[in-house]
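Example 241.
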Amino acid sequence: MLTSFDDIPQRERIIVALDCDAGRAVELASVLAGHATWLKIGMTLYYQEGPMIVARLKARGFKVFLDLKLHDIPFQVRGAAAAAAEYGADMLTTHAMGGADMMRAVVEGAAEGAKKINASAPITLGITVLTSMDQKALSAIGVTRSVPDQVVSLAQQAQQAGLSGVVASAQEASQLRQTLGNDAYIVTPGIRPAGSEVGDQKRVATPKQAFSAGASHIVIGRPITQSADPAQAFENIVEGL
Ligand code: C5P
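Predicted structure in complex with cytidine-5'-monophosphate:
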């Protein structure tokens, strides 16, 4: 599937999820320097370490995906997005369920924060339906649409509100690519290189399958971070693309 990202080498579109403590995160950053372009900080690492962890990874030359899934009133998310952009986050997430005004506030806040450090505005991504939620869980909170319909609807609302794209599973990626067009960021976790441990991920795709389904970027954590040789694991993934 053709996307506007085809000119960027796929190795630069692999995001390594650092779901570990700060010491290990910095260690992994040293090992992955010269191999990986992007590192992802989730909320556990962020809440343990604070903004300095972003600065420490940025200082090592990485692009940082700060996956905090913002969801609050517009005033709050604007401030949070501005602060995140100001300390150098290159990619941010917010819940599309928070509505159009909230998502617009994230986009505006992110742009304001970036301006203060003369950086370009971070990429902003919408979270549609958490993969931990199924049809029953959606119904329980009063959503009557099917999970796939809800995903597509929220993705469209995210795009209309000005977000750069969405986080989505590889299974949803091809439909979202058609719906959102070639320029949308579609960032896909749940990736397992052929033959690797699946762990707690239920619906998985290989890196190659995810990119062919229309993902612009893929997120891979444990297959790289828990490998005895993370840099080699990363290179093996690139080799298999
Ligand atoms: O270690 P693993 O490759 O499973 O890590 C995947 C990363 O992507 C984790 O940081 C996880 O929180 C995140 N993620 C996910 N599934 C989603 C959304 C995010 O695995 N639906």
